[in-house]
Write a structure and sequence with these properties.
This is Secreted protein. By secondary structure, this protein is α+β, with helices and mostly antiparallel strands. The protein has helices at residues 7-42, 146-154, and strands at 48-57, 71-74, 77-79, 84-91, 94-103, 108-114, 127-130, 139-143, 164-170, 174-181, 185-192. β10 and β11 form a beta hairpin. The mean pLDDT is 88.
Length: 212
């Protein structure tokens, strides 16, 4: 049997291998900003930082829950195996909020874990979205996902169905959490990464598995 019969097959295998390698390289390049961003946040694991609201537009006619409250973020849980970081966001004595930042096959995912004081999940919890490519090592944006839209509509929160969240990190300088909506809504908190503060108490439900 002639070896020439196998040459086309061998060439096809070699070509497939090259294509696979190129695809992997392309994937790694595309994921580099997300990985760099996650690593920049994880570098502060175990530390807490105080923040302040720098933008809150338009101002609500009702009392704002952030007015006059001490704002502290705590980079509390960093799970290397799961590529996930849990960041409780404390608003005064309200310890109900935790940002959950994790890796996906295509980028990052941001979810908001909301709990009651007894640790049980709020009716509106684990909402958020996946990062919008390409993003950068300093900033990632998260348009609201379909499951969150359905949750908001069920809860009568129509204004939230167009949410986009964003996070920015400037290593050793500042961390920014942002919420925007079409029509001019913008909320932004800036945390000072240069000056860690005393650790806050555990967030509500810290020992209770999230209701995903």
């Amino acid at each position: 049997m002639s070896v020439h019969r196998y040459l086309p097959f061998a060439a096809a295998v070699l070509l497939a291998g090259c294509n696979s390698q190129r695809d992997q390289v392309a994937h790694d390049v595309a994921m580099a900003p997300a990985d760099a961003f996650l690593a920049a946040v994880a570098a502060h694991c175990g530390k807490a930082f105080e923040g302040r609201v720098v933008v809150n537009e338009p101002r609500s006619a009702t009392p704002d829950p952030f007015d006059g409250k001490r704002l502290v973020m705590h980079v509390r849980g960093c799970d290397d195996a799961a590529h996930e970081i849990r960041i409780p966001f404390h608003v005064g004595d309200d310890h109900s909020r935790t940002w959950v930042l994790g890796r996906t096959d295509t980028g990052l995912r941001l979810k908001h874990d909301h709990r009651h004081a007894d640790g049980t999940p709020d009716a509106v919890t684990m909402y958020g979205g996946d990062s919008a490519p390409p993003g950068t090592a300093q900033r990632q944006s998260f348009p609201v996902d379909a499951d969150s839209v359905a949750m908001f509509r069920k809860a009568g929160m129509e204004a939230s169905v167009t949410n986009t969240w964003a996070m920015e990190v400037e290593p050793d300088e500042q961390f920014v959490y942002e919420l925007t909506r079409p029509g001019g809504r913008k909320f932004q908190v800036v945390f000072d990464l240069a000056h860690p503060v005393a650790l806050p108490p555990a967030p509500w439900g810290a020992d209770v598995p999230p209701d995903n």
